[in-house]
Fold:
Amino acid sequence: MQETKPISHLVAGAILGALLVVYSIVLYFLDQMQNQTLGYLSYVILIGGLIFFIHQYAKSKDNQVTFGNLFSYGFKATAIVILIMLVFVIGFNMAFPEFKDQILQTMREKMEEDGKTTDDQIETAVNMFSRNYILFAAIGTVIGMAILGAIGSLIGAAVTKKKPVNPMDQMSI
Structure:
């Protein structure tokens, strides 16, 4: 059997991060950043990509891997995606400051539609969010991507075929 070289978690994470960055930029220029349905597609890209790369990693190892090996591979790839997305979010918000204004306007409109908050409460919330926008965006990116990466890694590790090697079978006496 021909052994193939496994795709590094660094490469897998870089590919997934690049796909998510390109997808986000396309959404922005198509003025669809506030479209939640299209936003969910980024979740599919991350989780589906992790499942694919975990499967390819196991295949390159002739499926002689454990659940822990596969989950670890997927979550290390997720860490790379998080770093890429964190740099992207900060850079994107610096390059396009009007995006922050769009987010704040949408936030204000949703709070007004809800009708559960007074105008003063809305103003206070929007001002607080505005002052700490980059911090909230960065924390949201890290936590969101970590949760999605954990889900994708768990699914990928669970559905991938495994043939773990028993160390006792390899002992030569």
About this structure: The mean pLDDT is 89. Residues 34 and 103 are 8 Å apart (CA to CA). The helical segments are 9-29, 36-60, 67-95, 98-114, 119-131, 133-159.
